[in-house]
What does this fold into?
Amino acid sequence: MSETTTAAGRRAGPRNDAAAPGPILCVVGARPNYMKMAPMLEAFRAIGEPTLLVHTGQHYDESMNDQNFRALGLPRPDVYLEVGSASHGRQTAEIMSRFEPVVEEYRPRMVVVVGDVNSTIACALVAVKMGVPVAHVEAGLRSFDRGMPEEINRVLTDQISDLLFTTEPSAAENLAREGIDASRVHFAGNVMIDSVLRNRERAVPARELIGDELAAGPYAVLTLHRPSNVDEPRILRRLLEVISEISERIPVVFPMHPRTRARIDAAGLEALVEGGRLITLPPVDYLQMIGLVRDATMVLTDSGGLQEETTAMGVPCLTIRENTERPITIDQGTNTLVGTDPAAIRAAAFQVLDSGGKAGRIPDKWDGRTAERIARIVSEWCAARPEARLS
Ligand code: UD1
It folds into this structure.
């Protein structure tokens, strides 16, 4: 995507003159942001609310980034910050220092951030410090595990946001406990599910990705990328061993995050994912992933978004983590929290194969109209307050 930028890392675009209300800056940075922002941009466009799409460049690989932009029909970012990978501190700082001049230049009426990645907190923090209001989409989710980088990003982003849009009732309870005034919180539903419902029918059929024979029979899908699961070789080995065992009963398709690929190579664990019925793939794009999951017998994952997408599509999901910030997927959906103990993972997977997994139901307001609700509230809120002034 770098060809869209100037040497300074930003595309030339219309400057906002001081008298006119600035556009809404919509921020994305990493793969799980894109399917949340796509329906938001569409909804703002539908009500004539001017937006600019800012991409921090936290994810930059063709496979993580460009192919998902294409799959989701996202427009080219208006501003591309090209931050790339670094330690958390450096990456967050780099995003902040590159985003600040963008806010200065465009004087937005609001900055909209989604999810819980480093780009989310970095851009929210820059905005509030410059007197620009922030809307956080997917607010209030809590794993109660401060060892997760995302948890820190969630807690801090929520504290400084003016409008907080929640996906499930647990989120409002969490926010109230943290002293956030209920008037800032809106239960709008799940914007990620807007994307699932919009794209389910146009998803790439699994057979195009994994071949007729495999797609015709039962298969499982695996994703694994959380630092707590993949960074420590001993833990990674145990997980791959049990997955390999499960694959003796059902083929397991494993699109691999670059981080996981790097950790497997560094730990010399390639043999555990080569050959047999564990089929590894490079990262797949959004439409391929939805197609793969839609037709799967079950999903094993440590992702946040997949817990919700499987619930929306009625596919049993086993979450390989000790906690989840998305409890509604367990209480109402198809998700089961199995932890990281190999015996528990094996038992849960075999149970799905022997007796079928959870059927679940669709949570309230996961109806494909969340972005529309959020856009309307943002627009009315902006109209009702005097224009934000940059400090
Ligand atoms: C980030 C998010 C995480 C989200 C995940 C989805 C944070 C704190 N974490 O984690 O919540 O679930 O994205 O993918 O923001 N890499 C590449 N190419 C890329 C991107 C990353 O090779 O395009 C490799 C690099 O080695 C990099 C590593 O992956 O150092 C980690 O990337 P980073 O964006 O820091 O975190 P993720 O693990 O992807």
In short: The longest strand covers residues 134-139. Residues 30-32, 58-61, 64-65, 85, 116-118, 149-150, 225, 257-259, 262 surround uridine-diphosphate-N-acetylglucosamine (CB under 6 Å). The chain has two domains: 2-189+367-383, 207-355. Residues 207-355 form a domain with the Rossmann fold fold (CATH 3.40.50.2000).
